[in-house]
């Protein structure tokens, strides 16, 4: 799973990236501090993994992961080469979602690309760049289809998307059928990607922008969270005792990694199932609605191809009864077929034959 962190210059993108990943990339008070994209892998902590590890006495734990990419700042005109150009727009085409960091803190000592703090304006500036990049891609493709193939289903759909973009409507707000989504999947449209807004605030102040931002996001097919990237970065390097005191003083109820990853899971409609045996206990991320055979394919295509049954027990039941055998005796272990809709927390042993 790959999430791209985007935003204007000096909004706290790299500060958030460092807080999430534990890296120490340069943060500076000048435009375009970050000149190249950087990636960091985050291991998702889940106490259920540790309890399954203890129960099965496995040799190792394998966490689910999210990879974050810190993209150099976008500016008005990035799609046509302004600032650091549109190279970095291409960088985020393959991400699963976008994390848009928006500055909502007042600090006269921190340079702003537009000199004043106005989160809605900044959001719309970045959104226009994403829209324009998609529009240019669509127009090139429409020309090619018309010359080589002639009007077809793809042509009509792209025209529909083009019309929306001309009205400044991001593609994520356009209603598309499952078939239409499959048809445009290979384009990796930027404005179609699920979007998480991270509103970067000064934790000490009542923020004048939050109510307006909440209203804006309601109509945007996106999710919004607020945090102070600066404070979260300071928290990262404290020992546990100081960290808890710090969090209490600033009324922080959830660490940044948990807050962001939980929001990404919600945004992408993701859950977790587990496999646990003698060798390892592992967490696997899957999309809500996937069936047992599809989830088997997440582990390996051979398991999906040779799928027979999924021996399944809910995590809570397995912990309650204390062993696989006792859970079976209590009737909590089920043999599910390929169409079974996997649930969050299912512990599964896949039976297959290839």
Keywords for this entry:
single chain, 354 residues, alpha/beta, Rossmann fold, Ubiquitin-like (UB roll), 2 domains, six-stranded mixed β-sheet, 14 helices, 20% strand
Protein architecture, described:
This protein has 354 residues and is of the alpha/beta class. The chain folds into two domains: 2-267, P-loop containing nucleotide triphosphate hydrolases (Rossmann fold, 3-Layer(aba) Sandwich), CATH 3.40.50; 289-352, Beta-grasp domain (Ubiquitin-like (UB roll)). It is 40% helix and 20% strand. The chain is built from 14 helices and twelve strands. The chain has helices at 13-21, 47-56, 87-91, 119-148, 153-166, 178-184, 210-218, 229-236, 240-249, 256-268, 292-299, 301-305, 315-321, 324-329, and strands spanning 2-6, 38-43, 60-62, 65-70, 97-103, 195-200, 223-227, 270-276, 280-287, 307-314, 334-336, 346-352. The strands form three sheets. The chain has a six-stranded mixed sheet, with helices on both faces. A hairpin with a 3-residue loop joins strand 8 (270-276) and strand 9 (280-287). Helix 1 packs parallel to helix 8 (229-236) and helix 4 (119-148) packs antiparallel against helix 5. The longest helix has 30 residues, at 119-148. The protein is flat and about 65 Å long.
The CATH topology of the largest domain corresponds to Rossmann fold
CATH architecture of the largest domain: 3-Layer(aba) Sandwich
Query: How would you name the CATH homologous superfamily of the largest domain?
Result: P-loop containing nucleotide triphosphate hydrolases
Cα separation of the termini: 28 Å
SSE arrangement, N to C: EHEHEEHEHHHEHEHHHEEHHEHHEE
The general outline is: flat
Approximately how much helix is present in the residues? 25-40%
Low-confidence stretches at least 5 residues in length (pLDDT < 50)? none
Main sheet: which strands, in order across? Answer: 2-4-1-5-6-7
Q: How much of the polypeptide forms β-strand, as a percent range?
A: 15-25%
Main beta-sheet annotation: 6 strands, mixed
CATH class of the largest domain: Alpha Beta
Number of helices, where a helix is a run of at least 4 consecutive DSSP H or I residues: 14
Q: Structural class, from secondary structure content?
A: alpha/beta
Q: List how many beta strands DSSP finds.
A: 12
Give Rg in angstroms: 23 Å
Mean pLDDT: 90
Query: How many domain modules?
Result: 2
